[in-house]
Amino acid sequence: MGSKVLEKYLSENLENLKSRGLYSVIDTLEGANGPLIAINGRQLINLSSNNYLGLATDPRVVEATISATRLYGAGAGAVRTINGTLGIHDELETKLADFKHTEAALTFQSGFNCNMGAIAAVMDKNDAILSDELNHASIIDGCRLSGASVIRYGHSDMQDLRTKAEDAKNSGKYNKIMVITDGVFSMDGDIAKLPEIVEIAEELDLITYVDDAHGSGVLGGGAGTVAHFGLSDRIDFQIGTLSKAIGVVGGYVAGTRQLVDWLKVRARPFLFSTAMTPGAAGGCLEALRILSESKELNDTLWQNGRYLKKKLKELGFDIGKSETPITPCIIGDESKAQKFSRELYLEGVYAKALVFPTVPSGTARIRNMPTAAHSIDMLDQALGVYEKAGKRMGII
Questions:
Q1: DSSP 88-155
Q2: Does 169 qualify as catalytic in the annotation?
Q3: Using an 8 Å Cβ cutoff, are 253 and 114 in contact?
Q4: Is 214 an active-site residue?
Q5: Is the pLDDT of residue 88 over 80?
Q6: Range 312-321 average pLDDT
Q7: Predicted confidence band of residue 1 (pLDDT cuts 50, 70, 90)
Q8: Which of 301, 338, 391, 367 lies closest to 46, judged by CA?
Q9: Catalytic residue (one of 110, 146, 156, 186)
Q10: Of 228, 244, 309, 374, which residue is the catalytic one?
Q11: Overall average pLDDT of the 151-161 stretch
C-alpha cells in the first residue's frame, strides 16, 4: 500500500480540478496524427495538432526516419559528450544553422530541454531576465532554474519593457540582463514585436532570446520569426522545436559558434541526457530539405489559416488578435469551454479546450490549428459543426 497522505492529496485535488473545469482528458489516437484522426473507432477532423505542414506523416520524412534508424540504430547510445554524437547529429546541426541563418546550432531532445538548458547555462543569480508575461512554461521554468531575478513585463508592451529594462540597468545590481520572448505566442497566435525589442536591447546592451517554436517553418519563408523581420544577425539566441512544423521531435538553439561551444559544456540537458535518436535526426533532415526546396506547404498552411479565421469570425466567434494560422475561439469560462469541446467532438471535430494554467484564468478557449494537410472540404465540414454547436450553446 502507498502513502495515505499522498492518496488523500491526489484524490481531493483531482476532484477539485474536475469540478472547476480544469481537468483535461487525454485521448489516445488509433493511428497517425494527421488532418483526420481516429479515436474510439470514430473518425474526426483534427484541429488540435501542431503538425503545421503535415510533415509528421509525410512519406518522405517517414522513410528518412527508417533509413537513418537502419544505418545508425534505434538510439544514440550515450550522451553527446561521451560518444553519443553521431555523424547525422553534426549534419543536422549544420543544416539547422543554414536554415536559421546563424553560424551554428545545437540540438536537444526537446524544445522544453532547450529552454531549461540554454537559459541556465548563461544566466545566474547575479543577473536579471525580462520575460514577457505570456511566455511559454518552458521559458518560465528555465528562468527559475537559472536563479536570475525574473522581471515580467506586460505582454508585448514595449513601453513597459523599456521602463523595466532601464530600471534594471540603472540599478547597477545585475551583471547581465536578458530579454526573453516567444516569437509566436501559441495561445493567441500573435507575433512578438521583435524590431522594437531589438532596438531596446541594443540601446541598453541586453542579451536577446527568442523562442520560435511556433514560428519555425511558419514565418519567414519557414526560417521563423527572426528571419521574418530580417533580424537573424541581431538576436543572440534563437530557440526552436523539431516537433511542430518540422514534424518529428527535438529542439535546437541557433546562434554564434561561440555560444554553441559554451552550451556544449554548460547546458545540463545536453550534458546529462542521451542524444536525440538517429531516426529523429534523419527525419528532421528530410523535413528541412523539403522546406528548403519548396514553399508550397508553407503557402497552403497560410491559405488554410486565413480561410478558417475568416469563416469563424463571420460566424461570430471571438478569434482574438491572431496574426498566424493559430486560431483561438475564446470562450472565457473554463467549464463552458470544456463542454463546447465535447460538443464538437460528438459532431466529429477534435478541437481541445485550453484552460488555466495553460492560459490565464477566465480566458479559456478552443485553439484551432489548421495545417497544410487539411483540405478546404475538411475545414468547411468543421465550420458547419462549429456553427451548429456554437448556436446550440449560445456562444454565437
A1: HHHHHHHHHHHHHTSSEEEEES-HHHHHHHHHHHH--TT-EEEEETT--HHHHHHHHHHTPEEEEE-T
A2: no
A3: yes
A4: yes
A5: yes
A6: 96
A7: low
A8: 367
A9: 186
A10: 244
A11: 98
